[in-house]
Amino acid sequence: MGVGHGHGHGDSAAGHAGGRHRWRLSVSFGLIAAFFVVELVVGLVSGSLALISDAGHMAADVVTLGAALVATKIATRADSTGRRTYGSYRAEVFASGLAVLMMLGVAVYVVVAAIGRIGEDPEIAAGPMLLVGLLGLVVNLVAMALLRGGAQESLNVKGAYLEVVADTAGSVGVLVAGVLIVATGHGVWDAVAAFLIGAFVAVRAVLLGREVLAVLGQHVPAGVDIDTVTGALGAIEGVCDVHDLHAWTLTSGMNVATAHLVLVEGADGASVLRRGQLLLREQFAIEHATLQVEGHRSAACDAVTW
């Protein structure tokens, strides 16, 4: 009987997806924080609900990006307590959860405010609204370009990226509303744009929330089929059975698995361990794998899962 643990180590910041893209979060945070102040002031002066609602979403972005920056710092910091055996990598997942809550909160506020304006035709200063909407679009496009490079690797960066995508849609909505107000002379388009922005933000928040819950619920990593993994491990020469198999995502880019491999009589346990770890790493992108080899089936745990 033996246990093997396969994984790749090195500099924690370099090996952690969120840490590698921290500079993208930093630059985006600076851009959006500066623009938030501009948009809020102009929104209050012009009376535009679309601008104020988009500024509220920008405020959520500032908080979310700030939390993401803190999370990536915490996630790459060595544990000095000896109690966090998995490190602090889950910090980025919690930051993504905060992004979801912030997005949903802003969406509810915007939609309720927009509905409250039904039947009204407020006087809106379309000129400042168009100017700020255009400036916001430029800022968001720059931030999108920065964050897109890390969104596929880090759930934390993806949360920030989706926030900026929603902001970009908000800027487009502000511009369209401004043009319609100028063309028709009716301020109702401001509330319509605000409602659509809120609905879009809510949809993006729900989609990201599902991913966050999947990680916290320790679901099988995206793109990995547990039956396929079982079959592949069972096909290794010297293995007659696979049980107690679990696979989950610790944080973005860090998939983890454990399994018990039952050996055929006379099989080389060390060789089976090496092959199993290599298979999980190369075929399923699971570098952190803890495998236990057994000379016979254990009565204590003979199922593939719990």
UniProtKB/TrEMBL annotation:
The chain crosses the membrane at residues 29-52, 97-118, 124-147, 159-182, 188-207. Belongs to the cation diffusion facilitator (CDF) transporter (TC 2.A.4) family. SLC30A subfamily. The lineage of its organism: Bacteria, Bacillati, Actinomycetota, Actinomycetes, Propionibacteriales. Residues 27-216 form the Cation efflux protein transmembrane domain. The keyword Transmembrane applies. Its main location: membrane. Keywords: Ion transport, Membrane, Transmembrane, Transmembrane helix, Transport. It is found in: Membrane. It comes from Nocardioides albidus. GO terms for molecular function: zinc ion transmembrane transporter activity. This is Cation transporter. Residues 222-294 form the Cation efflux protein cytoplasmic domain. GO terms for cellular component: plasma membrane. It is a multi-pass membrane protein.
